[in-house]
Design a protein that fits this description.
By secondary structure, the chain is of the alpha/beta class. The chain is 41% helix and 23% strand. The chain binds P-hydroxybenzoic acid (PHB).
Amino acid sequence: MISRRSVLRYSVAAAAAAPAFSTIVRAAEPTPINVGFLNGYSGPFAINGQESDAAIQAYMKRHGDVVAGRKIVLLKRDTTGPNPDVVHRVVQELISRDKVEIILGLDYTPNAMATGVVTNQTKTPVLVVNAATTKILDTAQYLVRFGFTTSQVGVPYGRWAVKQGYKKMFLIYTDYGPGLEAGASFGKSFTDSGGTIVGEVKPPLRSPDYSAYVQRAKDSNPQAIFIFAPAGEHPQAFLKAYQDSGLKEAGVKILATGDLTDENQFDALGEGTLGMITVFHYNESHNSALNQMFVKDFYEFAPPHTRPDFGGCCTYDVFEALYRVLQAQDGKIDPDKTIALLKGIKFESPRGPIEIDQNRDIVQNVYIREVRKVDGKLQNVEIDVIPHVDDHGEEVKAS
Ligand code: PHB
């Protein structure tokens, strides 16, 4: 016969076992959430893919891969370069077949535009890492930009150039969205501030040979050349033509957006870049505790010769935004709530403070940088900062 005492002992033992059971329940496998990630893993921007992989690993090293009970399952896809047809198809598949609930990444403007066409229908939020043409967001309601726009850097740079004494400028900008915007925005702020444009050319996006364009610049006898060209294969092609032209020896300076002195290009570009002044939103050398941690973690995961640049930094940031919106919705992604949560979001990025405004666009510091050697490495070193600039290139008050 079982005594009262042993029943009691049994129930005490059962009670003691209960926490173990609930622990098991709590530690149950988190529910996966499929997240699309698009970047160039082949083509002219291929290093970008390797770079973003290292940035994602750096982020997850600190924050894990489970958020609000959801395990992040990344479905990575290759844009293959500026290929909107490929991207349109890939985004459709990611959403309808692979059931991604949110998309991160995107390199080139035409790729982001193709994505927007699909996500307007499916209402899938897209956290854009790079595509830099302001108007992309006008017709794509579910895109939110974490990169930059070429007006954002071009407008303050035009003013800055005049203050530095530049009066006669030749413009070179790639003949597609971000280039046309860079030329127009820099050109307007430069002339509004008292400068003169002595000529301009628009090389094509694909496989450009810059020699004829640089010759046109030389014929116009400028004091300096402003250039926007997308990172990847353009900077080397342009700088070769510039060096071959003798313009450097003649004292004609280059003013460029930071795509030209992208940290990932420095090995290929070499010491000829020393002293170049560019404008951009991220510098590997940015002096903050968060950036130092990001850079250190990045190198732990990056393949040899891959450095953290604007693509890596902005990839890190879209993951921070993803984790925040997932937390705020208890592990769910409601499309409209996600967009509402992203409007007004602000946090510290490795590039400095960032904020998304009510138009889903980014507000951030714009840095004027000079290429210098730091600890034996070519770096873009900040020499001036224009704080809290919106996508149109205007300083806005902190909210
Ligand atoms: C763009 O297509 O928007 C783009 C691509 C590469 C850059 C900057 C902008 O370096």
